[in-house]
Design brief:
Distance between the termini: 32 Å
Strand content: under 5%
Shape: globular
Number of helices: 10
Order of helices and strands: HHHHHHHHHH
Radius of gyration: 19 Å
Number of strands: 0
Structural class: mainly alpha
Largest sheet: none
């Protein structure tokens, strides 16, 4: 089976169109453009494969849409309502105002390509006509768990910040890892890869699916490092924070990785 059928390029075109919102504001390439691209790709695949959908593949695509709308909506609300977040992001992420247009285009294309690669395991299940099997259901269950986990982490952090805006969050899921929202994201995409692991055909399809998975895992570790640097600046002098970061892993539960600050290659 080909790794790049015609439908694959339609997904690429859709991701490029949706993520082009980043030309309005640079950060949107990796925030709103990300969430709404995943939702759009899920919806597009529902249409493209409407005649061959099965219960499991339909559920996977619905989970893409739910994931993307939740993430995009959450980020949009935070963008519009949180002045503290916007102030912090001005120092964390470049506004792109001085970035050459060619560089912006390269980032746009790279981001759109990554979003398509991330959903490719489900795409290939549909393209290969594999239908639904036990691994489809298992993958969907992992995806759903990751989505719920990530959503709960965001809600818990919002509640914590409303209660005490100047304190770091260490309650709920934040007792397990310091970046549970990123962990939930990784769980979701692990489910996506798992859902298609038994139907990927040939080196090409495997390379596409694995590149998407490794890419988003790298982005999550990069995000965790960026958050760690910001929190170290904000709370580094707080003894409670120091005790927290020394006892709670940053991203992977039960793995004694407490800091990624020194890994300067984690830049995204």
């Amino acid at each position: 089976m080909s790794a790049f059928p015609n439908a694959f390029w339609l997904l690429c075109a859709a991701a490029l169109l949706i993520s082009s919102i980043g030309f309005y504001k640079y950060v949107y390439f990796i925030s709103l453009g990300y969430g709404f691209s995943i939702a759009g790709l899920g919806g597009l695949m529902l249409y493209l494969f409407r005649d061959t959908l099965t219960p499991g593949t339909t559920l996977a695509l619905v989970l893409f849409i739910a994931y993307g709308i939740r993430l995009g909506g959450y980020l949009l609300i935070r963008e519009l309502k949180s002045s503290a977040y916007n102030k912090a992001m001005k120092t964390e992420i470049k506004d792109g105002s001085t970035m050459p247009f060619g560089v912006k285009c390269a980032i746009w294309v790279t981001c759109a390509a990554l979003y398509v690669l991330q959903v490719s395991a489900v795409f290939y299940r549909l393209h290969n006509g594999a239908g639904t099997d036990a691994l489809t259901w298992l993958g969907c269950a992992v995806m759903a768990f990751g989505l719920i986990f990530e959503s709960a982490a965001d809600l818990q952090k919002n509640a914590s910040k409303k209660k005490n805006p100047r304190r770091f969050c260490d309650s709920g899921l934040f007792k397990i890892v310091r970046c549970p929202n990123y962990l939930g994201e990784m769980i979701f995409w692990t489910g996506v890869l798992l859902s298609g692991a038994n139907i990927l055909s040939g080196v090409g399809q495997w390379a596409v699916a694995l590149t998407g998975y490794i890419g988003i895992i790298f982005v999550m570790f990069s995000g965790a490092r960026r958050l760690e640097l910001r929190q170290n600046r904000n709370y580094g002098a707080d003894p409670e924070y120091q005790a927290y970061v020394k006892s709670v892993p940053i991203l992977l539960p039960f793995v004694p990785l407490y800091s990624v600050e020194k890994y300067k290659f984690l830049v995204a």
